[in-house]
Structure to design on (849 residues):
């Protein structure tokens, strides 16, 4: 029986099979290091899908993924100190990220183009400066400096975190497909092409962009919360680092901005890159920066986009649907 | 009158530091005015300039300001190359692509500096870096005064260049109306490359004075990019005076913020100011 | 009137992205002529001028100037070989002075050597520009800005002047002065191709004309012949 989810080519069965295989991997005794990289893959995948939603489909070049990640991460950390269990903490973190997004949407969404980009760039820096100063009042949390441990991490195994990450990664794919085949998706496509034309067709541009922004904040926040829950320690420089933007951006762009499958390929490549260059932190980033430039200039449509344009692919897809 | 005397120092410092911020912002403003793109790597390129001067000092024993004789041409050529070979192609793809390429450059320069010079904080400390002199109740470090003097000199040079030379007028024309400029026989591609190269030469100058004024690390660039952007917005495009005033606004915001809220709050105040300005009047107070 | 061909456009197709704007368009301008290119909005007139100026390139066909193929040249190169366009809407540089606007017109190498000479000519044609030479361009009236745009174009030392909808938004009195200036410009040896919507006026001022409709040339010839046909075209253009 062929069950079709909107936009999901090939049907549900093969897709479900893949998920089952991925879920079973830890039980089959996959080495911990590989599990860790798959864990990261799903985190990066969620972030990339959301960046794709914002930049590739809504025309919002959002430079503040770190803000959502950091806010959610700190929420989870604080949560563990006040006795909030992890899973609730993660959801609380995602909600905190959404609250933050709503708060700043008022000033930030009045900005267009480059002003919007710089406005979002400022946010993680402001948060970093703030959290470097912040010392909690009331003595609930104990610690020197600005970094805080996430308590109780030792009680949860990597396998559990792997499954949580798997859920958010897969969920982000489903979410994308559902959004894009919905009315929201159509509206976003119109906005991406031209804000003003979309507005004159009666589309509430502000509201649709806000929806995207909030959804992006939620998922990115959740991904960050999961990341820091596993990591067990959070401090401002890392939490609000530009590296989160680089991950989301590079994964989206390598795969193909505005293409549904793009982030999957892109996230895989980014994780592999991190794996290969793990020992050389500075060079790793330098190469990623160079890679970003190379892709933008030589293959702006990304790897998937490039393949989609080749004759072989077009032939294959005609055969598959014909 | 205690409060007032107390305030004099931060106010004077703020005005003088305004010179440094104006210097940093000039390159950004030039590129933004001509090519309508904010070079998000600008702060990192300024810091790169600081590191070049540092290298000249530590390896060759050359005074930082004198090292500009080497630093400016080097950054000029790098800037020309960046625009001619990278940004030019990026613009052909889209404006967003150009922004992302600048971001890639930002990452590259940050990490290049980190690999070569380590994440340790550095500063430029020639003998005169510790000099200061007294004017009334205020004890002014010499480098602060140099910041303002340098800003005024560079601004004057830029203004005359834009007014008197063909290339300067072409840059001005291209920033007002690209199509009309093309029809005047202006090779806008080359004009853009020169504008970017000049902006990078300014970044070299800004880097030296930044290094004389503050300690710096490979990741210091973002903070100064944000401030420079704020200065450009306050000053508006095409207004030199506006950029100078913008620089002073941020200099004062920082020193007064530090005075009232403590040293650690300085950057915070500056960031909030940028955000407020963006939200309230992004087209600037002075410009067209 | 011995007339060599200065500009020859042969069978060009031009696209804006995937939209075809010009279909198999051909046009000839001989040295010393004033030629009119007439048509309603969106008939492709501006597109044709922009293609000659190098802002667009033909997908098919060729453009020759003084016998040499120019269809692949960049816009700034087109100016250097002697074709100058006065764009639609004048597009003077608003915050530059009148004098600076004129000077920037002589940006290309060939024109720089003749800057003083051409400036003198422009001041003779349009004395008001000399009066206002230190004023910012945006403070000028519509008619004065058109004169400035014309003067600016002349500063590039052109052999062929392309004018895009000069009359837009200008009073008839001002137009008379401008058309008089065009005749003087022709006297000084510069060939003119101008684009207009107003059929009657155009046919009065030009030697020959081309009429365009939806991206094609539908009529062409000496203005005398065309005026005969104008009776028929009155309905067409609603003129």
């Amino acid at each position: 029986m062929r069950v079709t989810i909107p936009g999901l080519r090939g049907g549900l069965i093969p897709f479900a099979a893949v998920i089952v295989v991925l879920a079973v991997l830890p039980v089959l005794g996959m080495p911990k290091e590989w599990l860790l990289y798959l864990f990261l893959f799903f985190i990066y995948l969620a972030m990339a899908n959301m960046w794709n939603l914002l930049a590739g489909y809504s025309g919002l070049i959002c430079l503040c993924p770190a803000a959502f990640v950091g806010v959610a991460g700190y929420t989870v950390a604080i949560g563990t100190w006040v006795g909030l269990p992890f899973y609730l903490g993660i959801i609380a973190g995602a909600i905190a990220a959404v609250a933050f997004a709503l708060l700043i949407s008022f000033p930030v969404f009045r900005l267009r183009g480059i002003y919007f980009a710089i406005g979002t760039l400022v946010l993680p820096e402001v948060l970093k400066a703030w959290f470097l100063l912040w010392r909690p009042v009331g003595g609930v949390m104990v610690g020197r400096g600005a970094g805080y441990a996430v308590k109780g991490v030792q009680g949860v195994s990597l396998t559990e975190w792997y499954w949580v990450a798997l859920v958010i990664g897969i969920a982000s794919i489903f979410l994308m497909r559902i959004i894009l085949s919905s009315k929201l998706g159509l509206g976003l496509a119109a906005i991406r092409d031209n804000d003003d034309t979309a507005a004159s067709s009666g589309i509430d541009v502000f509201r649709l962009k806000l929806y995207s922004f909030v959804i992006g904040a939620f998922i990115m926040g959740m991904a960050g919360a999961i990341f820091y829950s596993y990591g067990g320690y959070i401090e401002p420089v890392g939490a609000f680092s530009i590296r989160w933007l680089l991950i989301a951006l590079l994964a989206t762009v390598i795969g193909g901005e505005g293409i549904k499958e793009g982030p999957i390929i892109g996230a895989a490549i980014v994780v592999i890159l991190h794996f290969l260059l793990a020992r050389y932190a500075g060079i790793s980033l330098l190469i990623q920066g160079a890679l970003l430039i190379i892709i933008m200039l030589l293959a702006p449509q990304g790897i998937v986009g490039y393949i989609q344009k080749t004759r072989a692919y077009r032939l294959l897809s005609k055969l598959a649907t014909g | 009158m205690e409060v007032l005397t107390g305030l004099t120092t931060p106010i004077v410092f703020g005005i003088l530091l305004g010179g440094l911020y104006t210097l940093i912002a000039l390159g950004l403003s030039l590129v933004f005015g001509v090519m309508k793109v904010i070079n998000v790597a600008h702060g990192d390129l300024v810091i790169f300039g600081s590191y070049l001067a540092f290298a000249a000092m530590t390896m060759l024993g050359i005074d930082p300001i004198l090292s500009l004789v080497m630093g400016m041409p080097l950054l000029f050529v790098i800037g020309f190359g960046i625009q001619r070979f990278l940004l030019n192609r990026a613009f052909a793809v889209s404006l967003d692509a150009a922004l992302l390429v600048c971001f890639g450059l930002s990452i590259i320069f940050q990490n290049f500096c980190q690999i070569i010079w380590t994440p340790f904080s550095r500063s430029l400390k020639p003998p005169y870096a510790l000099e200061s002199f007294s004017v009334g109740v205020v004890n002014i470090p010499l480098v602060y005064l140099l910041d303002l003097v340098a800003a005024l000199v560079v601004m004057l040079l830029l203004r005359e260049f834009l007014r008197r030379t063909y290339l300067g007028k072409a840059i001005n024309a291209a920033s007002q109306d690209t199509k009309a400029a093309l029809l005047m026989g202006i090779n806008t591609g080359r004009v853009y490359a020169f504008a970017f190269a000049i902006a990078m030469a300014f970044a070299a100058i800004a880097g030296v004075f930044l290094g004389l004024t503050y300690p710096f690390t490979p990741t210091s660039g973002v903070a100064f990019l944000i401030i420079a952007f704020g200065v450009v917005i306050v000053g508006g495009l095409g207004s030199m005076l506006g950029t100078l005033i913008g620089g002073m606004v941020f200099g004062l915001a920082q020193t007064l913020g530090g005075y009232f809220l403590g040293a650690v709050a300085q950057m915070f105040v500056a960031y909030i100011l940028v955000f407020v300005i963006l939200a309230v009047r992004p087209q600037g107070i002075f410009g067209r | 009137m011995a007339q060599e061909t200065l500009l020859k456009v042969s069978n060009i197709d031009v696209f804006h992205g995937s939209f075809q704007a010009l279909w198999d368009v051909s046009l000839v301008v001989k040295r010393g002529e004033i030629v009119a290119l007439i048509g309603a909005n969106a008939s492709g007139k501006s597109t044709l001028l922009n293609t000659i100026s190098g802002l667009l390139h033909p997908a098919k066909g060729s453009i020759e100037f003084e016998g040499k193929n120019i269809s692949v040249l960049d816009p700034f190169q087109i100016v250097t070989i002697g074709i100058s366009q006065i764009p639609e809407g004048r597009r003077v540089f608003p915050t530059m002075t009148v004098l600076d606007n004129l000077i920037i017109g002589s940006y290309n190498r060939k024109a720089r050597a003749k800057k003083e000479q051409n400036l003198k000519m422009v001041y003779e044609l349009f004395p008001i520009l000399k009066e206002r030479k230190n004023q910012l361009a945006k403070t000028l009236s519509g008619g004065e800005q058109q004169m400035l745009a014309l003067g600016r174009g002349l500063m590039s030392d052109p052999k062929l002047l392309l004018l895009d909808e000069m009359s837009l938004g200008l009073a008839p009195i001002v137009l008379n002065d401008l058309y008089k200036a065009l005749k003087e410009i022709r006297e000084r040896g510069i060939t003119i191709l101008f684009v207009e919507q107003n059929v009657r006026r155009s046919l009065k001022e030009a030697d020959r004309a081309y009429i365009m409709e939806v991206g094609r040339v539908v009529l062409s010839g000496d203005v005398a012949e065309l005026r005969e046909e104008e009776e028929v075209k009155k309905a067409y253009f609603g003129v």
Notes: Chain A has one domain: 14-239.
